[in-house]
Amino acid sequence: MSYRELADEAGNLSTDLRERGLQRGDRVLILLPNCPAAAVSIYATLEAGGVFSVINASVKPGKLDPILANCEPAFVITDAAGLRKLSAIPERLPSRGVYVTGDAPCDTISFDQACRTQRTATRVGLIDVDLAAIIYTSGTTSVPKGVTLSHRNMVSASRSIAAYLELSGADTILSPLPLSFDYGLYQLLLSVSAGATLCLQEGFGFPFELLRSISSFGVTVLPCVPTMMAVMLRLQEQSGLDLSSVRAITNTGAALPGAWIPRLQGMFPAAQLFSMYGLTECKRVSWLPPDELATRPDSVGHPIDCCEVFVADEHGHFHDRDATGELVVRGANVMCGYWRDPEASAKVLRDGPHPWEKVLFTGDLFRIDADGYLYFLGRMDQVFKSRGERVSPREIEVVLYAIQGVGAVRVTPVPDPLLGNAIRAEVVCEGRELTVAEVKRHCRERLEDRLVPGLIEIVDRLPISDAGKVKSDG
Questions:
Q1: Is residue 86 in a domain?
Q2: Residue 103 has pLDDT above 70, yes or no
Q3: Backbone CA torsion sign across 232, 236, 239, 245
Q4: How far apart (Å, rounded) are the C-alpha atoms in residues 83 and 2?
C-alpha cells in the first residue's frame, strides 16, 4: 500500500464516519489484527476528530466486555472473527454502527466500500491537547485500564524516537508486534512520520518467516522484545539467510541479556543495538546510545529529549543523580490519565518537583548513576513482564478461581531466558481432583495466549497471611 492509497482510503473512511455521526472526541474501537485496514482505521479516526483504541484481535469476549463498557465507542471497526466476538456480548454493540472488512453482513457497514467511495474531506478543528488514543493495558487488577494520550503526547514521543533512530524514507521497518501494544503501534506512527516503509506481520507465530522477510524486503530497522531475539538467534544458526540489511535493532519490554549482545552483533553485522525503557503511560522514557552498550550493558540509557526523570526516595525527595528510588517522569510524553478512572489516575499522576504540574510515578524501582544513566531494578508491585508485555497475576487468578473445586491459587513469575519471565500458577484443589491438563485447557479457553501459565502445579496448600489472604511469595 502506498502513502497515496493510505491517505485516500483514510480520507474516504474519515468522511464516512463523520457523515454517520462521529463527533469530535468520540471513540472508535479497532478490533483487527496487524493489517493495512487497521492502519487506515487509525488515521481515518484521527482525521475525523475521533479517538482510536486498537484492541488485540485475540481478545476473549469476557475481556472485551469491560473495555467496551469503559470506552463506549461510537463505532467498532472489525473483521468476521471480531464480529463473532461482538455478537457474544450484544448489549455492548456501539451506538452508531459496526464496520466489517470483507463481506459485511447486511446489518453492518461495509468497510471496503466506505474506503473506496470518493468523498469530499471535511476539516475538523483539533488542537494538540485533544485526545488521540486510548490504549488499554492490564494493571494490578483484572479490569483493563485505558491510558489516554493526546496528539501532543504521541507526536512528541514519535519525534524524539525518530530522531535518535535517525529514521528516514529510506528505511524499512518490520514489525510483528500487535498494533494494540504501544511498541507495535508506534512502529506505524514512526513509519508515517519518516515516510518509511512498514512491513506488518500478524504476530510472531512463524519466526522463520520473520527472518525470511528481513532478507527478502531488505529490512533496515527491527523492533524486538527479548523473546523474539532468543528464537531468532536459535533459528539463524540453521537458516543461513543474509540479514546484513538491518542497521538498527531496538529492544524494550524486558532487559536484554548481556550474553546475547555479541551473538546478535554476529547475526546482524551492520546493526546497532538500541536498549530502551518505557511504559504505556508515557511511551518512551530512555534510550542507550549504541556506543555506550559495551561500557554500560545493564543500563537502559538516558532520558529522551522530550522528558526529564527523577527518582523519589522513601522520604518523598527527588534526585536526578546518584540515587535509587521510584522512577518519576515529567514531560510532553506523559499521559493525560486513565480513561474514566480518576482514582487510578490520581495514584500515578501526582505532585512533583514543580508546583505547576503533575508528574508520572511509574511504580518501577530505578537507580540513576552519577552521569544520569538509568538502571532498572524491578517492579514495585506484583505486575511482571512475560514475552515483553505486562502480566497482572490477579487477571489470571480470577480465571483460575472460576474452576470448580479450586480453593486457592497463586500466580507468580519464574525467571526464564526465553520469555523474560514464565508464568507459574499454583492451584489448591478442594472437593475434587484436577489435572494440569484440565487447568491449562480452562485457561486457554478464557485467556489471551500470552497469559496462559506455562507452569501449572497442583499443590496441597499455599501460605496464608494473618489477614487470610494467599501470600504473594514465601
A1: yes
A2: yes
A3: positive
A4: 28
Distances (CA, A) of 237 to 19, 180, 187, 257, 419: 55, 32, 28, 19, 20
3-state DSSP assignment of residue 20: coil
Q: What would you report as the CA-atom Rg of the chain, rounded to the nearest whole angstrom?
A: 23
CB 236 within 8 A of CB 260: no
Q: Of 81, 106, 126, which residue sits at a domain end?
A: 126
Number of Cβ atoms within 10 Å of the Cβ of 242: 10
Identify the CA nearest to 41 among candidates 58, 29, 24: 29
Per residue in 372-403, pLDDT (tens digit) is 999 987 667 777 889 888 787 777 887 887 88
Q: What is the pLDDT of residues 156-209, one digit of tens each?
A: 999 999 999 999 999 999 999 999 999 999 999 999 999 999 999 987 777 888
Q: Cβ neighbours of residue 294 under 8 Å, at least 6 residues apart?
A: none
What b/e readout covers 358-373, taking b as 16+ CB neighbours within 10 angstroms?
bbbbbbbbbbbeeeeb
Looking at residue 24, which CATH number applies to its domain? Answer: 3.40.50.980
Phi, psi of 378 (to 5 degrees): 155, 170
Looking from the CA of 370 toward its CB, the CA atoms found within 13 Å total 0
Q: Flag whether 468 is in a domain.
A: no
Q: How are beta strands 221-224 and 248-251 bridged, if at all?
A: parallel
Asked if residue 355 belongs to a domain, the reply is no
199 touches 172 (CB < 8 A) = yes
In 3D space, the residue among 30, 43, 218 whose CA is nearest the CA of residue 121 turns out to be 43
CA distance 98 to 104: 9
State the DSSP H helix or E strand holding residue 424, giving kind and residue range, or none if neither.
Answer: strand 420-429
Domain count for the chain, please give it: 2
Strand duo 323-331 + 358-368: pairing: antiparallel
- Summarize the confidence of residues 286-311 as an average pLDDT: 93
**Is the distance from CB of 312 to CB of 326 less than 8 angstroms?**
yes
The CATH number linked to 447 is 3.30.300.30
Beta strands in 14-118, from DSSP E residues, in sequence order: 27-31, 51-54, 75-78, 98-100, 109-110
**Placement of cell 494490578 in the chain:** 140
Burial 416-447 (b: 16+ CB within 10 A, else e): beebbbbbbbbbbbeeeebeeeebeebbeebb
* 95: Cβ contacts below 8 Å, ≥ 6 apart: 72, 73, 74
